[in-house]
UniProtKB/TrEMBL annotation:
Gene3D superfamilies membership: Dihydrodipicolinate Reductase, domain 2, NAD(P)-binding Rossmann-like Domain
Pfam families reported in the protein's UniProt record: Inos-1-P_synth, NAD_binding_5
GO biological process terms, semicolon-separated: inositol biosynthetic process; phospholipid biosynthetic process
Domain Myo-inositol-1-phosphate synthase GAPDH-like positions: 254-366
Gene Ontology terms, MF aspect: inositol-3-phosphate synthase activity
Entry's transmembrane regions: none
Protein name in UniProt: Myo-inositol-1-phosphate synthase
Amino acid sequence: MSTPNAAVTEAAASITPAQGKLGVMIPGMGAVATTLIAGVEAIRRGLALPIGSTSQMGTIRLGKRTEARSPLIKDFVPLASLDDLVFTGWDIFGGNLYDAAKTAQVLDNDQLQQIRPFLESIEPLPAAFNQHYVKRLEGKTVKTGKNKCDLANQIRNDIAEFKTRTDRQVMIWCGSTEIYMEQAPVHQTLAAFEKGLVEDDPAITPSMLYAWAALKEGIPFANGAPNLTVDIPALQELSKKMNAPICGKDFKTGQTFIKTVLAPAFKVRNLGVAGWYSTNILGNRDGEVLDDPESFKTKEVSKLGVLEHIFQPELHPELYKDLYHKVRINYYPPRGDNKEGWDNIDIFGWLGYPMQLKVDFLCRDSILAAPLALDLILFMDLAARTPSLRGLGIQEWLSFYFKDPDSAPGVYPEHDLFIQNMKLKNTLRHIMGESLITHLGLDYYGE
Ligand SMILES: NC(=O)c1ccc[n+]([C@@H]2O[C@H](COP(=O)([O-])OP(=O)(O)OC[C@H]3O[C@@H](n4cnc5c(N)ncnc54)[C@H](O)[C@@H]3O)[C@@H](O)[C@H]2O)c1
């Protein structure tokens, strides 16, 4: 039997090192993307800290509690260095990223001035866009082509050009929320999907064109929006075939982040929940897009699934069967990106006596989302370099980052933030050959 050290050495050696430039390709260069890119540059220059990023600031316990081994995650697994990130992307609005960041109004003017030339040096490429899928936006710089296959191949050409300037690539969708879409026949196999591209099948959305192009090029794809995108058998098939990891969907940033902390707390204490009313006011472009009922439906479905999965009402009908769950998002321009989310939670305890909990989260949407996007970029690149992960398709261990995590067919997704965190850290331990941590701990008390 190999010693733990030999296992660690062997596992670590199987991961391709993170050498050279990591190209980050972002369809949708609005509030989240500009806050991410400006943030990475500010951090690289020592002007700010990567607060909120687990990959940069999180630690991971290794071995027993008595061993006192808790390195930073970025020192434990071979992640790309922030200095090696190179950015490009696509958007329907012309101009450079300094203009886009000014429009987004997330970061202070003083902070933007410090990195202005860097942001001005990045200009989004023309987008594959169709207003049918995002009703509230009008495309200014968009690709034209004879069919969807042509558009997707133009994206592949953009990728090919970027490949000449970078060593590895990752794509992350930070584009607007598309209209609600359910799985259609064209989504069921790769062959049907590729036929649908040529035939302009309406069930193939712009986000799917980017995803297909990335996966065809062997590039991992993460989905920060609630769109169906890679959550279809056709693209899951392509992901496995090309060893190009996928994950999604919908960054778990504000209200749902808190919901997936509170709900497991009620559940483990066997407290009942009669109702959970969540509402938000939001005034950025995302809020404007979500003001359209068809895009809102996509977001609503993503936000609603959470409680059902955590509470398992089929196992606990007395506590959760009649739970009334409502989610609202109201577009309210004066608040810009500084969203306010309220939750009213009606719970009940011993002998059925009712109680209430109110949450008022005055958050900043893109400030919460940017570090999640950074972690996903770095971990998806790690997955692509790791033999035991890259062929799996869906990277369920990254469900920590998503409101509506993708999972294997027939397997329900884990929504509890703490289970997700354990899954993420145990996956990192596993790929590095370290023992998994079960928190059993009996051996501390033996002879
Ligand atoms: N900020 C958060 O906390 C958060 C949380 C979860 C999910 N999200 C999702 O992340 C996405 C981005 O959010 P945001 O606040 O940056 O929105 P945003 O409106 O500021 O940026 C989205 C950008 O995508 C562009 N776009 C739309 N369709 C496109 C296409 N086909 N190709 C290229 N570009 C396209 C738009 O022009 C816009 O600039 C949204 O879908 C949002 O729902 C955000």
